[in-house]
Amino acid sequence: MAKQKIAVVGAGLIGLSTAVYISESISKCSVTVISDKFTPNTTSDVAAGMLIPHTYQGIPIHQQKQWFRETFDYLFEINNSSEASDAGINLVSGWQIFKTIPDEVLPFWSDVVLGFRSMTEEELKKFPQHRFGQAFTTLKCDCPSYLLWLEKRLKENGCQVYARRIEDLWELHSKYDIVVNCSGIGSRELMGDLEIHPVRGQVLKVDAPWVNHFIRDGDGLTYIYPGIHNCLQGQFNQDGLWSTPNN
After folding, report:
1. Which residues, in sequence order, are bridge partners of residue 135?
2. DSSP string for 118-154
3. What is the domain partition of the chain in residue ranges?
4. What's residue 242's pLDDT?
5. Which of 128, 164, 178, 209 is packed most tightly, with the most Cβ within 10 A?
6. What are the backbone angles phi and psi of residue 17, rounded to the nearest 5°?
7. pLDDT tops 70 at residue 44
C-alpha cells in the first residue's frame, strides 16, 4: 500500500504540532509542512505562551475542559522530561487579580492547574485596588524555543518542510492525498473567511531573572509572565488591529 501523502499548511504552533502528531500517530504516511513563514517570523513567535484558558461561547464547557486538560497533561509530561529546557516548557506559580469579584470564582479549569486557591487577605494587600485573587501553578511555553523543538522532531521523523506561499488549497490537491489547513489568521485570505480577524497583543521581552511569579490582571489585558529565557510584559485584546510594530 502506497504511503498517504499529507500536507500541513502553516508553521505556527498549531501547524507544527499537528504535523508532529500525524507523523508519530499514523503509519505509512509522509508529512510535508508548507508555509510562507517559519520561526522567528510567525504569529506564534510572539505569543505569551501562558497556559490559562479563555471561555468560548457556543462550545460546551465540558469540551473546553477536556481540551485544556489534554493540553496541560501533554505539556506537563514534557516539563517532567529531559526535553523541557530545549522545548522551553516550565512550571510557574503566581496570581490572577481582580478589581471586582468575578462571576466565576471557581473557573472550569481550576482542578486542572496545580494548587488552585483563592488568595488570602494578606496576599491581596500587595495589590491595592484589587478585591479578589486566585493563586495557582500552571505551565509556561517559550514559543520560539518550542517551535524550534517541534521543527527538530519533524526532521527526525523524516518530514519535509517547504517555504512557499499558498494562494489556494487546490494548488496541492494533485500532489497530496490529504491537506490540513493550519494557516491561522492567514485563513482569512486563503479560505476567504471574513469572520477571521486579528486580536492584537503587544509583548515586551525583558531580562528580569529576579521575577519568579506571574501576575495577571483578571480581565487578561495586562500581565507579567516569567519564563525560562526572559520575562514577558504585555497587554492584549486590541480587536481588529492588523499593525505589528509595538507602539
Report:
1. 95, 117
2. EPPHHHHTTSTT--EEEEEEEEEE-HHHHHHHHHHHH
3. 1-49+143-196, 52-141+198-246
4. 84
5. 178
6. -65, -40
7. yes
How far apart, in whole angstroms, are the C-alpha atoms of residue 231 and residue 56?
28
Q: What are the Cα distances from residue 246, in Å, to 44, 77, 198?
A: 16, 34, 15
Specify the CATH number for 52-141+198-246; select among 3.40.50.1780, 3.30.9.10, 3.40.50.10950, 3.40.50.2000.
Answer: 3.30.9.10
Gap between the Cα atoms of 91 and 140, Å rounded? 6
Helices 13-25 and 143-156, packing angle to 10 deg: 30
Between 41-45, 78-82, 146-150, the lowest mean confidence (pLDDT) is in: 41-45
Render pLDDT for 47-104 as a digit per residue (tens, 0 to 9). 889 999 988 899 999 999 999 999 999 999 999 999 999 999 999 999 999 999 998 8
